């Protein structure tokens, strides 16, 4: 493996781990489409941050994207409170904010390297060339360092409030009766989704972010009913998809991010067929056994 390939795989694996962990709670909370919405609406926050500062990197990008993610969540919640169905509310907010971001790119950004293709597919191939120096470690790609920090934050918050996340995900009414601030936890969670999304956005693009947020978690859901095991499996499936996707891209000579997103689909297909409890083959065998007994 070359130095260049190593950093691409490490960076993509960090995306897979962070998104895999967050994705489990998105699936359990039935908010999978919210991931799709936030992964696109953060574009508006990034564009506005660029228009204000005229810089393509820095903490202002993260702040702008987090603001856009939280604004998305607030607007969806507000429309839902006005008796608009949640999926319709997500569709309205998602398409409107993303369209505004695209219009601003076309009319206000000018010659800066910020375009819709970049936003959708990312620039993972160029990650190893944009480096920074860290104490004791040396030079590492900036995107890799940022994603490692995001993974640490995600792990810390999930571990520190594990019981609260578990209760609010499975039974929000019980959580409220126990005095857990359900709405606050909801927005903290969406803030985590926004941070994870924007940290991954520039490196791998929106398509891979959505794939990594939803598909590994959906695959893990087929293998187990225990939350702790589901979290481990989802993170593992994200890493497997990143590694397999890189080698698929090298073999076919195509988009690396697109291949990694495709690999998440392969992992889900295998899980759908072979998982011992919810897999298609296992269900078929159980049905066949039941028919045989009754016959």
TrEMBL record:
TM regions (residue ranges): 6-28, 35-52, 58-76, 88-109, 143-162, 174-197, 203-223, 230-249, 255-274
InterPro entries xref list: ABC_BtuC-like (IPR037294), ABC_TroCD (IPR001626)
Keyword Aminoacyl-tRNA synthetase: no
Signal peptide span: none
GO biological process, one term: transmembrane transport
GO cellular component terms given for this protein: ATP-binding cassette (ABC) transporter complex
Membrane topology: Multi-pass membrane protein
Keywords carried by this UniProt record: Cell membrane, Membrane, Transmembrane, Transmembrane helix, Transport
Tree of life domain: Bacteria
Subcellular location: Cell membrane
Family designation: Belongs to the ABC-3 integral membrane protein family.
Record protein name field: Iron ABC transporter
Organism: Aeribacillus pallidus
């Amino acid at each position: 493996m070359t130095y260049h390939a190593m950093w691409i795989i490490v960076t993509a694996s960090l995306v897979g781990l962070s998104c895999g962990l967050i994705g489990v709670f998105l699936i359990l909370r039935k908010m999978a489409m919210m991931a799709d919405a936030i992964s696109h609406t953060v574009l508006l926050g990034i564009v506005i941050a660029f228009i204000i500062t005229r810089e393509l990197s820095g903490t202002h990008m993260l702040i702008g994207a987090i603001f856009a993610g939280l604004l998305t969540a607030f607007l969806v919640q507000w429309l839902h409170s006005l008796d608009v169905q949640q999926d319709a509310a997500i569709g309205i907010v998602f398409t409107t904010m993303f369209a505004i971001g695209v219009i601003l790119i076309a009319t206000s950004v000018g010659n800066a390297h910020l375009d819709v293709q970049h936003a959708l597919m990312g620039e993972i191939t160029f990650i190893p060339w944009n480096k920074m120096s860290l104490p004791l470690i040396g030079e590492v790609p900036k995107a890799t360092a940022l994603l490692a920090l995001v993974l640490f934050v995600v792990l810390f918050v999930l571990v520190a409030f594990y019981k609260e996340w578990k209760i609010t995900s499975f039974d929000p009414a019980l959580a409220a009766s126990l005095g857990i601030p359900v709405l606050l936890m909801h927005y903290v969670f969406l803030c985590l989704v926004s941070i994870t999304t924007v940290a991954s956005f520039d490196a791998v693009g929106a398509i891979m972010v959505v794939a990594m947020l939803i598909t590994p978690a959906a695959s893990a859901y087929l293998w187990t009913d225990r939350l702790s095991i589901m979290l481990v499996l989802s993170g593992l499936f994200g890493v497997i998809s990143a590694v397999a996707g890189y080698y698929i891209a090298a073999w076919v000579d195509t988009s690396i991010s697109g291949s990694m997103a495709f690999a998440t689909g392969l992992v889900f297909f295998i899980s759908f067929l072979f998982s011992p409890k919810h897999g298609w083959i296992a269900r078929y065998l159980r049905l066949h056994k039941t028919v045989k007994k009754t016959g």
